[in-house]
Design goal:
The protein has two domains: 24-147, Leucine-rich repeat, LRR (right-handed beta-alpha superhelix); 153-214. Helix content is 43%, strand content 9%. It has helices at 2-22, 108-117, 119-123, 152-196, 203-214; strands at residues 31-34, 41-44, 69-71, 93-95, 101-102, 127-129. By secondary structure, it is α/β, with parallel strands linked by helices. It has five helices and six strands; from the N terminus they run αβββββααβαα. The protein starts with a helix and ends with a helix. The structure holds 2-acetamido-2-deoxy-beta-D-glucopyranose (NAG) (3 copies).
Length: 215
């Protein structure tokens, strides 16, 4: 009895899934409109209270990638996920103004995409949060001012500092040791020379004498 119930539930689920995938979803919840000159498509997602980017690059959004104009102004967007705009290869115009952008490190993708695409559409974007950059223009912010971008760097720097410091320290010790060994060996050879020649003839002369002998 239970088994039958489960399988019928599963059947309904599969039916629902089939229904939901079978129906075409033209870029929900935005409006797809043809341009007046019929040259391309406008995806109008403006003033829709969106809190997240609509899935422009996903399978859910049939032929969204062919749009030429994208309107996302006057929503509640705080960020654009990494790669979300990469598939829009026919895009000519965008409007992202009037959204409460959260300008932390994760907005870098969006900022760099816009810098590449059009400085003009980046110019009128303002950060709404975090507090440190509230009301600042997104275009004016550097990576260092975006929260979360800067933190890992000092740790790395410190790592480098200690590694270099250790290397330099080891190098100095090796140099000092080498110098000591050199001095000690010099001392030994001069002592040996003195033993060979009690009248303290400089080494060079001994060398010369030996040369003459061999001739
Ligand atoms: C986009 O849609 C909004 C309503 O959701 C409408 O007011 C606006 O005029 C449309 N914009 C364009 C360019 O069609
Ligand atoms: C912005 O969107 C809200 C609804 O989310 C709407 O009431 C308002 O009129 C829109 N403003 C502009 C300037 O389009
Ligand atoms: C956008 O602005 C930046 C700096 O403000 C500049 O380096 C870059 O060349 C500009 N890009 C375009 C396409 O105008």
């Amino acid at each position: 009895m239970n088994k039958v119930k489960i399988s019928s539930n599963a059947g309904i689920l599969v039916m629902l899934l089939l229904l939901s995938t079978a129906q075409p979803k033209p870029c929900p919840p935005c409006l797809c409109e043809q341009q007046e000159d019929l040259r391309g498509w406008i995806l109008n997602c403006s003033s829709m209270g969106l809190k997240e980017m609509p899935p422009l690059s996903s399978e859910l959004c049939h032929s969204c990638h062919t749009i030429n104009i994208l309107h996302l102004q006057n929503n509640s967007l705080t960020t654009v996920p990494l790669g979300a705009l990469d598939n829009l290869i026919y895009l000519k115009e965008v409007d992202f103004s009037n959204n409460p952008w959260h300008c932390d490190c994760s907005i870098l993708y969006f900022k760099q995409w816009l810098e590449d695409f059009s400085n003009a559409s980046l110019a009128n974007l303002q950060c709404a949060s975090p507090a440190s950059v509230k009301s600042r223009a997104l275009s004016q912010l550097t990576g260092n001012e975006l929260e979360g971008c800067r933190k890992p760097q000092p740790i790395k720097c410190l790592d480098f500092f200690w590694r270099d410091f250790a290397l330099i320290f080891v190098a100095i010790i090796v140099l000092i040791l080498a110098r000591c060994i050199l001095q000690y060996s010099k001392k030994l050879t001069s002592q040996a020379a003195r033993k060979l020649h009690p009248f303290e003839v400089p080494l060079l002369q001994i060398h010369d004498l030996e040369k003459q002998k061999s001739k």
